[in-house]
């Protein structure tokens, strides 16, 4: 794995204007009024910023939450092994994973762009250029260490350490907290641009203090630092909520932070309003964003997990402090958790469906679910609201797949969705065979953002080089498609069939239908039918981390550990792409900010419609008979009419 610097380009005035025009088209009259009021709020905040003394305001007395010696928050459920592996890295000043940030007791540590090395400017936050195409870098990379969530993990690690090592961890936490506070006075700089970032930071520092309090003296500056961050952040969040077409995981984090601030700091004059506003909004969004079947409205698994963790944290906080919670929080968490367990891959990871910045609600070591995916039952299950069908077969020829037949994302912007209609994820045992390519970056060179969220980065069919929907901005789509599951059948012997379609290429006069048929004997057949009029260039993509070697002129052999798999494809000319730059193809982003090469099997055809691709996965000697294949194709034809 390697770190990839962003390819930075100047921010273009025309591009910015087009972005605003696209956003305006999505706004209701109510939202336009809200946006105008927000402009007034920003003017007042800027006037306050310019008139008051620079630096952080000091409180005459500490809130009880900061001065208490006994812990005030419920315990965090953690993954012990993960924390033990992570702790030494944090103690050395690093973050988890490949993020290049490292703690330095220097003034620019919170403002130097990890990708470009440039220093992000200071000044009133709303005046800073931060959207993709700015001159500094991908701002999400800058925000990661400033969430201060790594200090929660370090505090948990310190709590488990011997007495002589604990002091070193506490000193590092203190140094980083005070450094962040000095470098980021209220409303000053890029770390106040996003109310969501302020919300996640507020929640994190509250838990840091609560874990450390048995190790702190009464006059430790950490206590007053946390009080200042909580008050300044909650005050800003309350005025900068993500509402209307901006609703999403941002809204969840902001609302959760208001509940935390209101519940933990009753001394603050707006505490009651914060708690009531946060809880009302969180309950509303829990119902809206956690669908009736437990899936996420944003069609982004990573953000869905963060939302569920935030709901669980707030519900636990209110119950722990014997305050009234909201039944919709626990209900949404319960149905969402069941969905996540079902979607978890055999190796224990969540699939990289939709956008994902690999962020967390509180801490990397936090883990509310530790049961292994392999304990789940076999068969198929459909989530009609989220738009997924999950299938599993029995050992020893175990297959698990996820077929995506859901919407593009959460309307109206569909911002975190990918154009992945009818994409198929497939694992054999615990080994992934067909994978999602991930996200890579939100900022930097726009071609990478376009590629990773585009159709060609997913296991589905591209028509005439177009995505299934039109990308109009880094977080905007137009002409969204609809997808639907037309039919599903489950046989008593463990086999079955699925049939789904989408309208993404209706504008080109083309309909894509995908059928699947599988057997407990160890084979899976995928049939892609393209119907319509005219002549088209159509391309089937399969993205796999497995080594690929030639097998026959019409097939490919995938070498897999402990399990021989043969993949036979008909319907076009086959080529293998790995790390192609122009245009991008054969890339995987295993975590935010990194990209690696991956094998992409491209099967292409140019000609009149209708046309079919057939992909057969064989785990052993068994294969479908001619009669089974013909019966399956006839069923597809009859079902689609």
Q: How many DSSP-defined strands?
A: 21
Q: Name the poorly predicted regions.
A: 1-12
Report the principal-axis shape. Answer: globular
The Rg value, from CA coordinates, equals 26 Å
Name the strands of the widest sheet in spatial order.
9-10-11-12-21-16-15-14
Which quaternary structure do these chains form? single chain
Nearest-integer average pLDDT: 92
The CATH class of the largest domain is identified as Mainly Beta
The first-to-last residue Cα distance is 48 Å
Number of helices: 15
Biggest β-sheet, characterized? 8 strands, antiparallel
Number of domains: 4
CATH fold group of the largest domain: Beta-galactosidase, Chain A, domain 5
CATH architecture of the largest domain: Distorted Sandwich
> How much β-strand is present in the residues?
15-25%
Top keywords for this entry?
disordered N terminus; 641 residues; 15 helices; 8-stranded antiparallel sheet; alpha+beta; 4 domains; 5-stranded antiparallel sheet; single chain; globular
Structure described in brief:
With 641 residues, the chain is of the alpha+beta class. It has 15 helices and 21 strands.
Helix and strand layout, with pairings?
Elements: H1 13-26, H2 29-51, H3 64-67, H4 80-91, H5 139-146, H6 150-159, H7 163-183, H8 195-212, H9 221-239, H10 249-264, H11 271-289, H12 301-320, H13 327-343, E1 379-383, E2 388-392, E3 399-404, E4 424-428, E5 431-434, H14 446-453, E6 461-463, E7 470-473, E8 476-478, E9 483-490, E10 496-502, E11 510-519, E12 523-532, E13 535-544, E14 548-552, E15 555-558, E16 565-570, E17 573-578, E18 587-588, E19 596-597, E20 599-608, E21 611-618, H15 626-640
Antiparallel strand pairs: 1-2, 2-3, 3-4, 4-5, 6-13, 7-8, 9-10, 10-11, 11-12, 12-21, 13-20, 14-15, 15-16, 16-21, 17-20, 18-19
Helix pairs in contact: 4-6, 6-7, 6-8, 7-9, 8-9, 8-10, 9-10, 10-11, 10-12, 11-13, 12-13
């Amino acid at each position: 794995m390697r770190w990839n610097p962003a390819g930075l380009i100047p921010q273009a005035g025309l591009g910015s204007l087009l972005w605003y025009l696209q956003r305006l088209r999505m706004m209701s009259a109510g939202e336009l009024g809200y946006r105008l009021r927000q402009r007034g709020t920003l003017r007042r905040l800027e006037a306050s910023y310019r008139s008051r003394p620079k630096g952080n305001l000091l409180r005459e007395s500490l809130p009880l939450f900061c001065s208490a010696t006994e812990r005030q928050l419920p315990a965090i459920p953690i993954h012990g092994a993960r924390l033990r592996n992570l702790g030494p890295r944090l103690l050395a000043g690093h973050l988890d994973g490949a993020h290049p940030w490292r703690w330095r007791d220097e003034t620019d540590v919170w403002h130097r762009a990890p990708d470009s090395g440039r220093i992000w400017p200071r000044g009133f936050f709303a005046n800073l250029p931060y959207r993709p195409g700015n001159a500094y870098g991908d701002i999400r990379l800058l925000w990661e260490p400033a969430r201060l969530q790594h200090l929660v993990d370090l505090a948990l690690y310190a709590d488990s350490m011997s007495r002589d090592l604990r002091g070193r961890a506490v000193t590092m936490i203190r140094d980083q907290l005070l450094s962040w506070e000095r470098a980021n006075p209220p409303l000053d700089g890029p770390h106040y641009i996003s109310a969501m970032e302020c919300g996640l930071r507020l929640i994190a520092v509250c838990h840091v203090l609560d874990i450390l309090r048995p190790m702190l003296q009464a006059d430790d500056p950490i206590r007053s630092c946390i009080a200042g961050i909580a008050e300044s952040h909650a005050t800003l969040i309350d005025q900068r909520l993500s509402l209307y077409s901006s609703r999403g995981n941002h809204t969840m984090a902001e609302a959760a932070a208001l509940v935390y601030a209101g519940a933990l700091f009753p001394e603050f004059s707006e505490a009651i309003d914060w708690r009531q506003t946060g809880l009302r909004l969180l309950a509303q969004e829990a119902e809206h964003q956690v669908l009736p079947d437990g899936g996420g409205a944003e069609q982004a698994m990573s953000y869905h997990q963060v939302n569920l963790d935030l709901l669980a944290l707030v519900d636990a906080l209110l119950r722990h402090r014997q305050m009234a919670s909201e039944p919709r929080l626990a209900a949404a968490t319960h149905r969402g958790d069941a969905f996540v367990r079902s979607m978890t891959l055999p190796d224990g990871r969540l699939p990289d469906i939709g956008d994902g910045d690999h962020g967390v609600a509180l801490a990397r070591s936090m883990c509310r679910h530790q049961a292994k995916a392999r304990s789940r039952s076999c068969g198929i299950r459909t989530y009609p609201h989220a738009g997924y069908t999950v299938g599993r077969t029995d050992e020893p020829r175990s297959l698990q797949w996820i077929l995506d037949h859901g919407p593009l994302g959460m309307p109206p912007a569909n911002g975190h969705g990918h154009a992945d209609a009818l994409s198929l994820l497939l694992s054999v045992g615990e080994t992934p065979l067909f994978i999602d390519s991930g996200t890579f970056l939100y900022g930097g060179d726009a071609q990478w953002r376009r590629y990773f969220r585009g159709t060609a980065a997913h296991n589905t069919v591209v028509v005439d080089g177009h995505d299934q929907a039109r990308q109009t901005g880094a977080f905007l789509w137009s002409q969204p498609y609809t997808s639907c599951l037309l039919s599903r059948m489950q046989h008593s012997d463990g086999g079955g069939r699925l049939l789904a379609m989408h309208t993404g290429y209706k504008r080109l006069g083309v309909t894509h239908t995908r059928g699947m048929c599988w057997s407990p004997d160890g084979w899976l057949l995928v049939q892609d039918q393209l119907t319509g009029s005219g002549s088209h260039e159509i391309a089937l993509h399969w993205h796999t981390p497995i080594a690929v070697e030639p097998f026959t002129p019409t097939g490919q052999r995938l070498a897999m550990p402990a399990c021989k798999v043969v993949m036979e494809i008909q319907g076009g000319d086959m080529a293998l792409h790995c790390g192609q730059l122009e245009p991008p193809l054969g890339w995987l982003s295993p975590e935010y900010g990194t990209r690696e090469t991956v094998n992409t099997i491209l099967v292409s055809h140019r000609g009149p419609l209708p046309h079919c691709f057939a992909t057969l996965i064989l785990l052993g000697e068994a294969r479908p008979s001619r009669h089974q294949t013909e019966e399956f194709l006839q069923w597809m034809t009859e079902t689609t009419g």
